Amino acid sequence: MAGMRLQRNPLFIKSIFLKFTLAFIAVGLIPLLCFSYIAIGAFSRHIEQSTMDDSRQLLGFAGQSLEKMVADYNNITKLLYSYNSGRNGGLEKLLQTAVNARPGAMLSFQSTQLMNDFVRYVLDTDAHIQNVIFIDANLRTYYTSKSSKQFDSDYNFNTRDQLQAILASGKRLKILPPHPEAYFVRSRNRVITFARNYYELTDFNHPRILGTLLLDVDLDGFEAVFRRLNLGENSPVAVVDDQGYCIYSNDQRQIGLQLNWFLKKRRLFTGEEAAGIIRDRDAYFIFQQVPLGNWTVIGRLSRKDVFKRVNAVRNSIGLMILACSAALVLLSLAFSKGFAVPVRKLMGQMRRVEKGDLTARVAVRSEDEIGQLAAGFNQMVGELQDYIGKSYLAQIKQKEAELEALKTQIRPHFLYNTLEVIRMCAIDNGAATVGEMIHSLSVQLQYTIGFNREMVTLRQEVAMIQNYFRLIKIRYEDKIGLELNLPPELLELGILKLSLQPVVENAVLHGIKPKDGPGKVLISGEIRDETLTISVFDDGVGMSPAQLARLHELLASERMGERTAEGWKQIGLKNVHDRLRLNFGAGYGLTVASQERIGTVVRLVMPIISEVTEDAGQSIAGR
């Protein structure tokens, strides 16, 4: 609606009201918005950095906890060596005997009891250890569990990749990512296995592996660490080993899987830096290495979580800015309106004066500059009204008297009677065609100088044109034709006298006459957009673009016509155009379109005049 209002009133963009409003906005609102933008940006950066520091500190604590956890289980796996000393010093000797025994040979009850005591001892060292399994060099398996689970006797560790990976790790601690307890019947628990190979201590040059110890640890210890590690709803945290397997994550679906996104960015997470932040397009990756386990704690901190706090403050600031902006705009509108409304009223009264209403006055309600302008306007209009009453009307009456005097000098009735005598003489002498031409001329003279009014009906103007074409047909032997396409309801509408005839005459003389062959003039009419439009089309020689441009320039100028070496041209069209504009306003007049060798169309645009007073005895058709 605002855009439509501006289109209907283009002067609005130049109004004082708009200028004052824009000035208020420029001085008050724009600085407020700029300050708010800078403040929100600085606050956002502060929150971002603060969140990064807090998250990095949390991951640092988590990394320390996990490092301690791995160190504890690493020490537990070494109990095999300390358990081998003192009163239990027979364990290493037992395992050496088992290595030297033939495969499948049974150990003594005492040896078996000793191994079972050892695995039970290891089981009781930590609350999170669920299973302890020891596999000697001949694949004899000793196990214990905190729950009553049935060991799968058909499970062959030797064919499993896990055992091969443990054996290949040498003397180092080997950690297997979360996996099901497949060696227990119908067990669905997932555990992390801490494993270590046990070497004989008697031969340092070529030590043999006497067995492998496996500690199955539940995930509760990780859960306790992660419970304190909450970066946000959309910010998962994971512990990943050097092969990309997820040791633990607060997204349970990721546990035990190999994470492709880690493999793609592994070089960034496993560099020389033990901790750091990697910025991605929509998230921050905060990492902390756990060297003892070859793990990396990674938190994917979503920007959405980072700026959740920022958005809350930003919304509050936005509401405050909106309220201040609304108050500022309302204040500017009120101030501008208080100044602009009196000016608009003054402009409205000025438009009334422009239209000829000299009774327009402005109420003076103050003594400021606006009040002084209103008082000066009232005084000016009053003096103008007095001047017109004394001088202008007197001049109009004088000119009307002069015009009437000129008309009386022509003595039209003398001309009519003289032409009638000449016509009858021509008929008596057998020149009927000449008599008909004289009659047509007499009718045109009567129409041209006999009517004492400016407005005629379209029917009268067309009748005069038909008389004109009687002369044209005789002169050019029916080379030029006339066609009328005027609805009957238009014939009684009023038009300016002699507004159509000059256009038709111009079409005949300058359009069809220079043409080789016959031609036609078509007159049509229609009511369009509350205006009467009469079109005069000829299929003559038309005009070149340069000629058409000169004609348009002439119609828009103050000149009476186009002066050439042969005399004045285009006087008729210019005269009709100026008369239409002077009588009806600048929105009316002639429009011309033309194309060479095609023809020309001239449109007369004028208001709809429904009532025209008929002068008795002045019907052209009856003459």
Give the topology.
Blueprint: H1 2-8, H2 16-77, H3 79-83, H4 90-100, H5 109-123, E1 129-136, E2 141-145, H6 161-168, E3 174-180, E4 190-199, E5 209-217, H7 220-227, E6 237-241, E7 246-249, H8 260-269, E8 275-279, E9 283-290, E10 295-302, H9 303-306, H10 308-354, H11 369-410, H12 412-428, H13 432-450, E11 455-457, H14 458-476, E12 480-485, E13 494-496, H15 501-512, E14 519-528, E15 531-538, H16 545-556, E16 562-564, E17 567-569, H17 571-584, E18 589-595, E19 599-607
Parallel strand pairs: 12-14
Antiparallel strand pairs: 1-2, 1-5, 3-4, 4-5, 6-7, 6-10, 8-9, 9-10, 11-13, 14-15, 15-19, 16-17, 18-19
Helix pairs in contact: 2-7, 2-10, 10-11, 12-13, 13-14
What would you say about this model in short?
The chain is an alpha+beta fold and 623 residues long. It has helices at 2-8, 16-77, 79-83, 90-100, 109-123, 161-168, 220-227, 260-269, 303-306, 308-354, 369-410, 412-428, 432-450, 458-476, 501-512, 545-556, 571-584, and strands spanning 129-136, 141-145, 174-180, 190-199, 209-217, 237-241, 246-249, 275-279, 283-290, 295-302, 455-457, 480-485, 494-496, 519-528, 531-538, 562-564, 567-569, 589-595, 599-607.
